[in-house]
Design goal:
Elements lengths: L4 E8 L9 H4 L1 H7 L7 E7 L15 E5 L8 E5 L2 E5 L5 E5 L4
Antiparallel strand pairs: 1-2, 3-6, 4-5
Length: 101
């Protein structure tokens, strides 16, 4: 997306990922994504050190799940509404409803 972050998509409801074969590269991740009820979007996202994503809102309601894949030198802070969660160590996770006022 830019120097701050990037997304490597696994699945997006209604859209075919054409630039690589997800099932060949990430068969287990894709299989587990499709076990969730009505998934909308799944991706690996990398955030650059000391960077962030601007506050934003979504037009549709989705549950969002973030899983820290490796230990961080520092931490990642996720905010939704008045709640804040810290992810720092491999296996840390957070799930939230991304539709907020």
């Amino acid at each position: 997306r830019n120097e701050a972050w990037g997304a490597f998509p696994l699945y997006k409801n209604g859209f075919e990922i054409k630039w690589y074969n997800v099932n060949e590269v990430f068969p287990i991740a894709l299989s587990n994504t499709l076990k969730a009820p009505n998934p909308y979007f799944s991706a690996f996202v990398k955030l650059a050190p000391n960077k962030g994503i601007k506050d934003h809102k979504h037009r549709e309601r989705h549950l969002v799940f973030h899983l820290c894949l490796s230990d961080l030198d520092g931490y990642s802070e996720l905010c939704c509404g008045d709640e804040r969660r810290i992810l720092k160590n491999q296996g840390d996770w957070v799930i939230f409803d991304d539709l907020h006022d």
